[in-house]
C-alpha cells in the first residue's frame, strides 16, 4: 500500500487554508502526513495551521513563489506519492482513495488525476481533456497542447518529481503545466472522470491573469523542444513543433475573439521569436510579421515628422492597442482573401492609433 504525503503551499491564505486542511482530514483513505508550507505570509496563515496538530508546518522567511514552496514541501515529504492541494482549494472525501488507487493499480503510471468542479465565483467543471479513463496513456501530446490538470486533483510519484528536479522556480505562472509536461516525457499518466476535487475561483489567484500563464506555457514548450533536440529525440521534436503551430494558431483566434490586445501582443512576440512558428503559412508566418514590423517602422517615421507629439520612439514601441488593430486587419485579410495592397487596410488603423493618442511608451 502506497504511503501518501499531502503538500499544501500557502501564501497569505489565512482565509482559505483551514478549509483545505479540513478537507484532507475528512478523506476516507487517511493520508500519512500533511505538510503546509507557509510561503512568507503576512496575514496569519501560520497561526491558522497551529490549530491543526496533525499538520507539519514549514515556514519560509521570504516568499519563494508557489514553485519554491512546493519544492520545500517535496524535500521534506517522505511518502511514496505526493497528493498536491492548493491552499484555496478543497477535496471531496473520496479523493485520495480514488487517485492513489489508480497509481497502485498501474505501477507504470507516474501521475494520476481526477476531475474537478468550480466553486466560489464560478460554477461548472474544469474542462477535462480527451484522454482514456482508468487506463495508462501517453500524455505528452495532451500535456503539450494544454494544461492537462490543475494541481489539486493530481497525485504524483515522489520519485518521478524528484528525478526531474521538482518545480521550475523561475516560473511564476503555469507551473502545473510545466511540471506535467516534463513528467509526460518520463512515463504514462492515468485519469478518472470522477469529480473528487474542488477548484475555488476568485480574483486573487494566478489563473486570473491569463496572459502571464500564456507566456509561461510557450516558454515551457520552447524549453522542452530544445531539450528534445539536444537529447537526440528529433522525431518527437518535429511532431511537437507541428503541435506548437496549432496551439499558436488557436490562441491567436481566441485572443482575437476576446478582443484581448495584451494576448495579441504576446502572440506577436512569440511568433517572431520561435522558429517553429515562423514556418506557418502566410499571413501568419515570419515574412508577414516582418512586413508588419517594417510597415510600422516606416509609417512611424513619417508620422513622427507630421505628428511631433507622438514621436518615433513611442510609435516604434509596438504598442499593444496598435498591434491588436493590426492583427485584426490581418485576420480580416486572411479570412476574406482581400486583394488590396497591405497599406490600404493597415493604414487606417495606424492613423486611428495616432488620432486617439493610444500609443504607449516602451518600457
Query: Strand arrangement, largest sheet?
Result: 3-2-1-4-7-6-8-5
Identify the CATH architecture of the largest domain: Alpha-Beta Complex
Low-pLDDT runs of 5+ residues are 279-286, 310-319, 353-363
Number of E-state strands: 8
Number of H- or I-type helical stretches: 15
CATH superfamily of the largest domain: Spore Coat Polysaccharide Biosynthesis Protein SpsA, Chain A
**Helical proportion, percent range:** 40-55%
Overall body shape: globular
- What proportion strand? 5-15%
How many strands, which pairing sense, and closed or not: the largest β-sheet? 8 strands, mixed
Question: Could you describe the 3D structure shown?
Answer:
The protein is α/β, with parallel strands linked by helices and 363 residues long. The protein has three domains: 4-208, Spore Coat Polysaccharide Biosynthesis Protein SpsA, Chain A (Alpha-Beta Complex); 210-278, no CATH class; 286-356. The chain contains 15 helices and eight strands. It has helices at 17-25, 45-49, 65-76, 95-105, 140-145, 158-163, 175-183, 210-230, 234-257, 261-273, 275-278, 286-306, 312-315, 320-336, 342-356; strands at residues 4-10, 33-39, 55-60, 81-84, 90-91, 111-120, 154-157, 189-201. It has an eight-stranded mixed beta sheet, sandwiched between helices. Helix 8 (210-230) packs parallel to helix 10, helix 9 (234-257) runs antiparallel to helix 10 (261-273) and helix 12 (286-306) crosses helix 15 (342-356).
Amino acid at each position: 500500500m502506497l504511503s501518501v504525503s499531502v503538500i499544501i503551499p500557502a501564501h497569505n491564505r489565512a482565509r482559505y487554508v483551514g478549509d483545505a486542511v479540513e478537507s484532507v482530514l475528512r478523506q476516507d483513505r487517511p493520508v500519512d502526513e500533511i505538510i503546509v508550507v507557509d510561503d512568507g505570509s503576512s496575514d496569519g496563515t501560520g497561526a491558522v495551521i497551529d490549530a491543526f496538530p496533525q499538520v507539519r508546518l514549514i515556514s519560509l522567511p521570504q516568499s519563494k513563489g508557489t514553485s519554491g514552496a512546493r519544492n520545500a514541501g517535496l524535500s521534506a515529504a517522505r511518502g511514496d506519492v505526493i497528493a498536491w492541494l492548493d491552499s484555496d482549494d478543497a477535496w471531496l472525501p473520496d479523493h485520495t482513495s480514488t487517485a492513489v488507487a489508480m497509481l497502485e493499480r498501474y505501477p507504470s503510471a507516474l501521475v494520476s488525476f481526477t476531475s474537478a468542479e468550480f466553486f466560489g465565483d464560478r460554477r461548472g467543471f474544469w474542462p477535462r481533456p480527451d484522454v482514456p479513463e482508468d487506463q495508462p496513456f501517453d500524455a505528452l501530446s495532451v500535456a503539450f497542447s494544454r494544461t492537462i490538470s490543475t494541481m489539486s486533483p493530481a497525485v504524483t510519484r515522489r520519485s518521478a518529481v524528484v528525478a526531474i528536479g521538482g518545480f521550475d522556480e523561475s516560473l511564476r505562472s503555469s507551473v502545473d503545466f510545466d511540471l506535467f509536461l516534463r513528467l509526460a516525457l518520463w512515463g504514462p499518466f492515468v485519469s478518472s472522470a470522477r469529480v473528487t476535487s474542488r477548484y475555488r475561483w476568485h480574483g486573487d489567484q494566478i489563473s486570473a491573469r491569463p496572459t502571464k500563464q500564456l507566456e509561461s506555457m510557450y516558454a515551457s514548450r520552447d524549453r522542452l523542444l530544445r531539450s528534445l533536440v539536444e537529447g537526440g529525440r528529433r522525431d518527437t521534436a518535429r511532431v511537437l513543433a507541428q503541435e506548437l503551430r496549432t496551439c499558436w494558431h488557436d490562441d491567436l483566434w481566441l485572443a482575437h475573439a476576446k478582443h484581448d490586445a495584451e494576448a495579441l501582443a504576446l502572440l506577436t512576440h512569440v511568433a517572431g521569436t520561435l522558429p517553429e512558428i515562423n514556418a506557418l503559412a502566410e499571413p501568419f508566418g515570419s515574412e508577414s510579421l516582418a512586413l508588419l514590423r517594417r510597415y510600422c517602422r516606416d509609417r512611424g517615421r513619417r508620422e513622427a515628422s507630421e505628428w511631433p507629439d507622438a514621436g518615433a520612439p513611442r510609435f516604434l514601441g509596438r504598442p499593444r492597442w496598435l498591434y491588436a488593430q493590426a492583427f485584426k486587419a490581418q485576420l480580416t485579410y486572411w479570412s476574406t482573401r482581400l486583394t488590396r495592397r497591405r497599406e490600404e487596410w493597415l493604414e487606417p488603423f495606424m492613423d486611428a492609433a495616432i488620432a486617439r493618442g493610444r500609443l504607449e511608451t516602451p518600457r
